[in-house]
Structures are given as structure tokens and as C-alpha cells.
Amino acid sequence: MQLNEKVIMITGASSGIGAATAKRLASAGSKLVLIARREDRLNEIQQEFPEAEILIESLDVTDYTAFETAVQDTIDKFGRIDVLFNNAGIMPNSPLAEKHRNDWQRMLDINVMGVLNGISAVLPTMEKQRSGHILTTSSTAGHKVFPGFAVYSGTKFAVRAIMDGLRQEEAMNHIKSTIVTPGTVDTELFNTIPDAEARSAEAALHKNVNRSLSADQVAAEVVHAIDSPDNVSISEINVRPIEQLA
Predict the structure, then answer these.
(1) Three-state DSSP state, 37
(2) Digit-coded pLDDT (tens) for 67-87
(3) Which domains does the chain possess?
(4) Name one Pfam family in it (predicted).
(5) In which order are the strands placed within the sheet that holds 7-11?
(6) Is 152 considered catalytic here?
(7) Residue of 152, 187, 202, 215 with catalytic role
């Protein structure tokens, strides 16, 4: 199936990798369902691509009922779902000793349960179609733990386990599974870090193109995976800036 035939749902579509992916797919003629809390940002993408077929769904990925409604809206408008890109996530990093328990819970709710909500919502449709593709954004922090990143890394290790389990469980239904594993990327994700000094350090890092990728560079790899042949499953994409070692 060509990109311009695919119906693609994207969470976290209001900024960063999600928005960049949406714009690339809109240019390719894909039918898009853009999901995020900030509806104004989604509307801006829709206005930028007036010829594209875009459905806007303003919701929080932690709300499973709202996710189910978005899936039904997608079926009603487009008749099928070919791709879900689980991209919503937050990263309010801090040392464990600081006990930011509310931040930990929010990370678990969005980074893990948000992914499970998306999978659970679209899987019945994809199983009925006997086709589909689910991609989820993880992180190099899902392979290696860094000080201050313990809980965030835990959510991304969980995502990798969930997605590999999904791959094995749904392979015979021809549902593909892709883990998107970027290194440092210049996005708004770092704005969720509570410590001002840590945020400032990340901002400085993003100014070096050899140590930080653009969201569009990652989006290009996501679109490559989405556009892969039906019998090819790209299980994981690891993409880092050239000077990032870990």
C-alpha cells in the first residue's frame, strides 16, 4: 500500500517528532488523524496543508475512552486504520532522591499507559483487517540508564518490552511493530525537565548539530518505516546525532 493510500493516526502530533512526521505524511498525501491536547497546534498543521485529508482529535492519551472515540471517528471518516504512531511522551527528569512522585506518575501514565491505550484501541480494527503497523517512540534512554533519568528510562525500557511482545503476538495477523529509538533531538520534550540548570544544559546541547538531531531528521526515518513493503517489518530504528556515543 502506498503512503497516499494509508490512514495514519499520530499521537503527540502538536510538536516535535509528531508534528514533523505529520507534515511529511501530509505532503505525501496520507490520510491523517492528528492527536494531541493542544488543538490549536493541530489546526495550524491542518491549515498549512489545506489539500490534505486530516482529522483532528484533541485528547489526552491517558483517557482510554477518548482514544476509543477517536478510533471510531477514524473508522467513520476513512473506513480503516493502517498505522498508529504512538509518539506522545514527557520527560520531567530528576534524581530519585528528590521524590518528584507526581512527575513519576505522570510519566508512567503518558509514556506507558498512553502507549497501551493506543495499542488497545486500534488492535481490534487491525486484527479484523489482518493488516496494520504500530510504531512507538522510545529513546536511547530505553537502552542505557543515566543519572537523573531513572524513571524516564524505566518507561522507555517498558515501551521496548511492550512493543517486542506486540511484534511476536501479532506477526501472524500481519500487524507490524516498530520501536523508534532516537538519541538527543531538539524538541519541546526538554521543556518538561523541572530543574532550570538541567534545562539550560540541554538547550546548549541542542545548538550543536553534531550532538542533537532535528525533529524532521527523525521524522524522515519514521516515514521510511511506514513506507516499507507490506512483508517487511522494521523492528527498531536507532537514530543518533553523530557525536552521541551512548
Answers:
(1) coil
(2) 999 999 999 999 999 999 999
(3) 7-228 (3.40.50.720)
(4) adh_short
(5) 54-58, 31-36, 7-11, 83-86, 132-137, 175-182, 236-239
(6) yes
(7) 152
